[in-house]
Here is the input.
Amino acid sequence: MKQQRFEELLEAKGADLATWPERDRRAAEALLAVSAEARAALAQARALDDLLAASLAPAPAGEGLREAILAQPVAHPREAARRFDFGFRAFWQVGLGMALAAGLAGFALGITGLVEGPESAAAEADIAGLIYGFSVQGPRP
Here is the structure.
């Protein structure tokens, strides 16, 4: 094994040679037996691994942390959702009620005849002109 390949494996696999593949481990051990540069690179990689392992250790919790966490009230998700349930559900129920009321009012007015519709062709032409923006000239009574 060459020094460059050994350093690549150190970066990829770490300084613990036991985790390396068998073939690479045997070649690395042979290189370490004869190369001071390889031993220095392994020592540097071990120091880096030790530093990383120490930085990943969890920090000890403070005295009152556990008590503070346990003192927090725990609400069931459904209870929390009920607090904010006034939004969409109430909105669509009110909207549906208003639409039904308007439909029933229109139906009732149409059935009772309280609102008169256009009875002549001239009145229909005037309404069409207002709606579509053009004038319909037709016979006027």
Remarks:
- The radius of gyration is 43 Å.
